[in-house]
């Protein structure tokens, strides 16, 4: 046994199949960042507000989630840094939306799963 890991698997074929599904270290870090972003209720609220192609200005988003503009901006910064949210300037107004790439998609799907849990528990 090396580092507590058994040297020989009980079911080598199942171990081989499971091992082929493991993420490379770079993707593990990205997954960790995305999941960490969801560990904050305010960021989950932001994702919910921006889901289904909704685009909101930061002030309007602050109003929707019930937080100050400053707090909302800090959370948007975190979501932008991991690529889950993108912004677009229209004159003096910056509008935010979920990123159209895989980061935005992963975050939106995870949050929609939370929404399904809420509905199934009867809290809706």
Question: Could you please describe the fold and organization of this structure?
Answer:
It is a single chain. This protein is mainly alpha-helical and 124 residues long. The chain has a single domain, classed as Winged helix-like DNA-binding domain superfamily/Winged helix DNA-binding domain (Arc Repressor Mutant, subunit A), CATH 1.10.10. Helix content is 58%, strand content 11%. The protein contains 6 helices and 3 strands. It has helices at 12-20, 25-37, 41-50, 58-65, 69-81, 102-120; strands at residues 56-57, 85-90, 93-98. Strands 1-3-2 form a 3-stranded antiparallel β-sheet. A hairpin with a 2-residue loop joins strand 2 and strand 3. Helix 4 packs across helix 5 (69-81). The protein is elongated. The N and C termini lie far apart (50 Å). The mean pLDDT is 88.
**Structural class by helix and strand composition:** mainly alpha
Give the ordered list of helices and strands.
HHHEHHEEH
In which order are the strands of the major sheet placed? Answer: 1-3-2
Tell me the CATH architecture.
Orthogonal Bundle
Poorly predicted runs of 5 or more residues = none
Give descriptors for this structure.
single chain; 124 residues; mainly alpha; Arc Repressor Mutant, subunit A; three-stranded antiparallel sheet
Short description:
This protein has helices spanning 12-20, 25-37, 41-50, 58-65, 69-81, 102-120, and strands at 56-57, 85-90, 93-98.
Task: Itemize the secondary structure elements and their pairings.
Layout (H helix, E strand, L loop, with lengths): L11 H9 L4 H13 L3 H10 L5 E2 H8 L3 H13 L3 E6 L2 E6 L3 H19 L4
Helix pairs in contact: 4-5
